[in-house]
UniProtKB/TrEMBL annotation:
Organism: Lacticaseibacillus chiayiensis
Cellular component terms (Gene Ontology): plasma membrane
Lineage: Bacteria, Bacillati, Bacillota, Bacilli, Lactobacillales
Major facilitator superfamily (MFS) profile domain: residues covered: 14-402
UniProt keyword list: Cell membrane, Membrane, Transmembrane, Transmembrane helix, Transport
Entry's localization field: Cell membrane
A GO molecular function held by the record: transmembrane transporter activity
Residue ranges of the TM segments: 54-73, 85-104, 143-164, 170-192, 221-246, 252-269, 290-314, 379-402
Protein name per its UniProtKB record: MFS transporter
InterPro entries in the cross-refs: MFS, MFS_dom, MFS_sugar_transport-like, MFS_trans_sf, Tet-R_TetA/multi-R_MdtG-like
Length: 410
């Protein structure tokens, strides 16, 4: 493999290595996430209510911290380079997630999950490095390909984690995940190359102008960041109730957990297949067209999910949601990179990560709250309304995005 990598252009070599790194990182993160509540249950004698509260805190504290600290890491990335942030994140996550396998009370686990939020940032910094090291004309394609790395890792992770937890234990799954992330650290250290010259004012630790004062269209930047939060809110609002909805549609008969797992995986499968192709299409016709079309398509696909009576139809609609995600998240990253000066790419990508983390936290809470009031159906309708409002916001505040051609976006 190393000899083949040497024959590639530098940006292609980075893409190949970071694809593997984000694949392992995505797999490692998703290996343990489905089992956090089960692990919490092993750490004490809790009532059902206590278990729900502790599990929610353990799951949510990481997103809360990520939302707060990501801009700080982004500024450091712009000062010292994105590769340093890749090393910080992968090594920190390796140590912290591995340590989770050794805790014996829920408070220690919550503390480590808090620290995990401080160590987060591998995937957005990989995206930022690819965005700055890749020729602008190919950035949409490259980011779309990179997206398939962590999406495919997220698909395989829960399956591998389930097998590891069943064969060994949840504790050992945390330790194995830490070892996988240590591999990511070594790959990033030895095989990722960055040719980046930071803004001299940053090296002198001078206070540089704020990001929004250095871009030609600050309104577009803010709209894209809000879009990230809304899209992720929609994704995460479904996450807490999807298995319960499957159980209801199957009338509590049959292999419910197996079917629920398949239904949950379907968006990732179609995302994996669609993201690179949509990235290439965006490079040809304009990323703005892909964003608007993706939002329209998502609204159309979410509405019927709340009124279906067939598990097969739900599966098809969830598969289509992966296509819309393949159009939305990579396209937003591409537009942010094209609208932002190179010296601020780390900052804007860290803001994007904060927006995504905020959406994750808000979506989880919204899904539970709305399902209690309007049943599971209401969650899908709520998500469709949020995405429709996001579409309206994009068209109202950055109306030129639909007609912009690739050269104008660069």
């Amino acid at each position: 493999m190393p000899s083949k990598l040497k024959s590639l252009e530098p940006w292609q070599q980075n893409l190949a290595v970071l694809w593997l790194g984000t694949f392992i990182a995505g797999m490692g993160f998703s290996e343990v996430s489905p089992f956090i509540s089960l692990y919490v249950d092993q750490l004490g004698n809790f009532t059902k209510g206590q278990l729900s509260i502790y599990s929610g805190i353990t799951f949510g504290v990481t997103f809360m911290v990520v939302a707060i600290v990501s801009p700080l890491w982004g500024r450091l990335a712009d000062r010292r380079g994105r590769k340093l942030m890749l090393l910080r994140s992968s090594l920190g996550m390796a140590i912290i997630i591995g340590a989770c396998g050794f805790v014996h009370n829920v408070y220690a686990l919550i503390a480590l999950r808090f620290l995990q939020g401080l160590a987060a940032g591998y995937i957005p910094n990989a995206s930022a490095l690819i965005a700055t090291e890749t020729p602008k004309a190919k950035s949409g394609t490259a980011i779309g390909i990179l997206t398939t790395g962590y999406v495919s890792g997220n698909l395989i992770g829960p399956i591998l984690g389930g097998l590891l937890a069943q064969t060994f234990s949840i504790r050992l799954t945390f330790i194995i995940t830490g070892a996988l992330l240590l591999i990511v650290f070594v790959l990033s250290l030895t095989m990722v190359h960055e040719h980046y010259t930071p803004d001299p004012r940053l090296l002198k630790k001078e206070k540089r102008p704020a990001l929004l004062t250095q871009v030609s269209n600050p309104k577009a930047i803010m709209v894209l960041l809000v879009s990230t939060a809304i899209i992720q809110l929609g994704n995460m609002s479904i996450y807490p109730i999807i298995s319960l909805y499957v159980k209801e549609l199957m009338h509590n008969v049959g292999p419910i957990t197996v079917v629920a797992g398949i239904i949950a995986a379907l968006p990732g499968i179609s995302n994996l297949m669609s993201a690179p192709r949509l990235g290439q299409l965006g490079d040809r016709i304009g990323s703005g067209k892909i964003l608007v079309s993706g939002l329209i398509f998502a609204v159309i696909m979410y509405v019927p999910q709340g009124i279906v009576s067939s598990i097969w139809l739900l599966g098809f609609l969830r598969l289509m949601i992966g296509v819309s995600d393949g159009a939305l998240f990579p396209t937003i990253q591409t537009l942010l990179s094209k609208l932002t000066p190179v010296s601020y790419t780390g900052t804007v990508f860290s803001w994007n990560q904060s927006a995504q983390a905020f959406g994750s936290m808000a979506g989880s809470l919204a899904g539970g709250f709305i399902s209690n009031i309007f049943n599971y159906n209401g969650v899908f309708i709520f998500t469709a309304i949020c995405l429709a409002l996001d579409l309206a916001m994009v068209l109202i505040f950055i109306p030129h995005i639909w007609s912009s051609r690739p050269k104008q976006q660069e």
